[in-house]
Automatic annotation (TrEMBL):
Coiled-coil region(s): none
A Pfam family this chain is assigned to: PEX11
Cellular compartments per GO CC: peroxisomal membrane
Organism: Maylandia zebra (zebra mbuna)
BP terms from Gene Ontology: peroxisome fission
Keywords: Membrane, Peroxisome, Transmembrane, Transmembrane helix
Protein name: Peroxisomal biogenesis factor 11 gamma
Chain ranges passing through the membrane: 129-155
Signal peptide interval: none
Subcellular location field: Peroxisome membrane
Length: 243
């Protein structure tokens, strides 16, 4: 119990760790709140609790949006250090990663403008800027999925080589599991990104609150698992996940 408490405190003391916890609680509240709200006709107390949880989730989401106002420089530093990915062995992985970094970098100013417009700090309509930020987020997620699929293909080729030692094969399998988790996480987030697109685009606007919460909770829990396992270091050092 003491060790678990110490691990949680250590996680909350880091900015990225705290963001992952807030994200998990945010989507978890939306999941539970959405489920309880569906029981409104049968139970008034469930309806009230569900609405409270949904409001709590919205406040946590707003909190994360404000905190991301300070993420531009850390993302820029990561993009600069990665450059054109000359250290990558595979050209496809390199250029997908570069495009991914560009999408991530452009995401932040678009979200900042949308937030400032909603806060009436600037006189522009926020709708198009929220749309731009959602499109960039979805693009980043899609590129991340493509990158993980390419990495998986390369790892499978390495795994088939007979001269690989037992330790090397075990490490390759761990890397493959990490990429599979990343794909699952990105797909869950991508489903929500499409939901927040304008009506008429695929399943935009059709997810109930509980399903949005379920997708987000799934992605958030995977992020916590990867962070604990040390396989999510890259994403943890670059940015906090949008929405």
């Amino acid at each position: 119990m003491q060790r678990c408490l110490e691990s949680l405190v250590q996680l909350l003391e880091s900015y990225r760790g705290r963001d992952k916890v807030i994200r998990t609680v945010c989507y978890g509240s939306q999941l539970v709140g959405g489920v309880l709200s569906r029981r409104a006709e049968a139970d008034v107390r469930s309806q009230r609790l569900g609405k409270s949880l949904l409001l709590f989730s919205a406040q946590l989401s707003h909190c994360r949006t404000v905190l991301r106002l300070f993420d531009d420089l850390s993302m820029l530093a990561y993009s600069h250090s990665y450059g054109f990915g000359n250290g990558e062995e595979d050209a496809a992985v390199r250029w997908i990663s570069v495009l991914n970094n560009v999408a991530d970098q452009l995401y932040y100013p678009c979200e900042h403008i949308a937030w400032a417009a909603d806060a009436e700090l600037i006189r522009v309509k926020s709708d198009k800027w929220w749309l731009f930020s959602t499109v960039l987020w979805g693009t980043s997620l899609l590129l991340g999925i493509l990158r993980s699929l390419r990495v998986l293909l390369l790892l499978r080729k390495k795994l088939k080589k007979r001269h690989e030692g037992r330790n090397s094969r075990s490490q390759l399998r761990r890397q493959m599991r990490g990429e599979l988790l990343s794909i699952l996480s990105s797909m869950a987030d991508l489903s929500n990104a499409i939901h927040w697109m304008p009506p008429g685009f695929l399943w935009a606007g059709r997810f109930p609150n509980w399903l949005v919460g379920l997708m987000g909770t799934t992605s958030s829990l995977i992020g916590l698992i990867q962070m604990n396992a040390g396989s999510g270091d890259q994403s943890d050092t670059t940015q906090s996940s949008p929405e």
